Amino acid sequence: MDKEVILKDVENFTILNIEKFEERKNILVESPEGNYYIDEAPYYKITALVKVKLPSMGYKVFQIEKSKANMLVNDNRLEIKNEFYNITIKNNKLYLKLSNDEVIEDFIIFEDCGNDGDTYDFSPLRNDKPIYFRVTEGKRHISNGIEKLTLKGKKSLPENLEDRISMENLNKLNITLEIVLLEGSPIINCRITVDNNINSHRLRVGIRSEINSHESIASVPFGYIKRPTLDIKDWQSNYLEKPIDIEVFEETVSVTDNKNTLSIYSKGIKEYQVVDDIMYLTLLSTTSQLGKPDLLYRPGRASGDTTKQGHIMMPTPLAEQKGIKKFSFGISIKEENFNERVVAKRYANIK
Description:
Beta-galactosidase, Chain A, domain 5; 2 domains; six-stranded antiparallel beta sheet; mainly beta; about 50% strand; ten-stranded antiparallel beta sheet; single chain
């Protein structure tokens, strides 16, 4: 067990994270010779950033040797930058400065609201209002070729739907936002960790771009699709359910105004909505029921209509998604037109 190791013959070997696994006793080993028990020695899991060239259609063997590696250096200066971006905290807001000197204020925000819907659909709670907040306190970590902000925050939120209206019985939602800039990369790498103990709510992260577009461009299997943004008034006169533009995507989603283009590169997040100049990504949409009747966005509907044969109210406690949840995605905002091949290539290179 040793955490002071490096890979030989590589550039800029920088340790990003070290996780220690303690000794475990009486661990079962299943082998062709038979089963037996061992004491598993403690060990480290090391995540490192390495610059290396790999041969096309081939592989490379690395040797590990004991040596002191570069580590991220921590300080309280909440500013990171590379050739493409400068990200800083001012007045409890996140500012993004682009390479063309444009500045976007309130670059990343969070939105939370009640989810009166079920496992089929999201639906807002009547008379509820979204709660907006930011995560802006933390530290900077820098080393060769990498700069990172680790921001942590707690937000008091209503614990269940009944508390949304009275704003009583609040509980803490813990969020960590990591923002990483790599040397030479136009991707802003983001990781979010949420310790969820709130019931029946929808939590989204919003990325502001100052791009006002009437459509989004989302990747789907084998291609891309353009979708209009919606703002339909008096929908009850023409529709049985409210038309919404909460959409799904495969890997990337973009908006453009033919001057700047915002692209999101997702590693697991699959739902988005564009509202004005903000791209919202759904992190959590939790609920306590398989089906519900007479929702605000979906009146009637057999999935929750207990007056119809075979339809019952069925609790789904696991759909509340309690505990620690992790999300990963990348962002690029550049002075460029949307290009499918460029976006696809960037997605393949996000960390």
